[in-house]
Amino acid sequence: MSATASFQDYVQALERQAGEDAKGITARLQAAGTPQRGLFIDCGSNLGQGFGQFSRYFLPRDFDYVLIEPNPNCWPALEKIVAAGEGRIELLKQAAGTKVGVVQFFGLEQDPTSQGGSMLAEHNSKYYAANAATALDVPCFSLAQLIEDARARYPSVVLKLDIEGGEYEVLPDLIARGAHKLLDAAYIEFHSQYMAEPKGAVYRELEARLKAQIVHDQVPLRIWF
């Protein structure tokens, strides 16, 4: 089997899993005396690719959406999605972090809407060196706090996290606060494979510990792509 075919099989299996997750969570929402809505947090929305995928399973008729994207070059595309969402889709124009503040956002020199934009300087270090002089300064917020606040308003919260290396800062904070336990499913893409050594090995070790802790805490973890 070719690497391409193997990856396609993996993607199809993940999409089937997302469909099964969505059916189960939606059934629980509808089982309440009065049907309730869930919340899907799309963290690292870029141009809306993740929304296009997940909204096929976590249907907007059952779920509100928060699209999170700090790159202003991506906002026009996302604003079109919000405009079509009939008030059920929100765009948060900040970077997911561990606290309120400002962070540098790297990796947009070659492509202003790059999917590889990151607040982690080491991200994609196999391919380029981050340049602080050309990085954007973007506002950031606490993702853990957002999840905690959301769970106070919604009976079900689902997270897609694809923030190009930022997960190595955000996930330890979620785990320390127990916010990950408030999720009904977590679709997470990790990025240590894009980092030059020796940093790559450091992040791989952290990645393994994060995955193990999330699974240990019985949070449905799906390794996204």
* CATH architectural type: 3-Layer(aba) Sandwich
The separation of the N and C termini measures 19 Å
Using the CA coordinates, give the radius of gyration.
Answer: 17 Å
**Uncertain stretches of 5 or more adjacent residues:** none
Task: Please list the strands of the largest sheet in the order they lie side by side.
Answer: 3-2-1-7-8-9
Task: Report helical residue fraction.
Answer: 25-40%
Instruction: Report on the biggest sheet.
Output: 6 strands, parallel
Overall domain count: 1
Structural class: alpha/beta
**Strand proportion:** 15-25%
Number of helices: 6
What does this entry look like structurally?
- This protein is of the alpha/beta class and 225 residues long.
- The chain has one domain: 3-Layer(aba) Sandwich (Rossmann fold).
- Helices cover 37% and strands 19% of the residues.
- It is built from six helices and nine strands.
- It has a six-stranded parallel β-sheet, with helices on both faces. Strands 4-6-5 form a three-stranded mixed β-sheet.
- The mean pLDDT is 93.
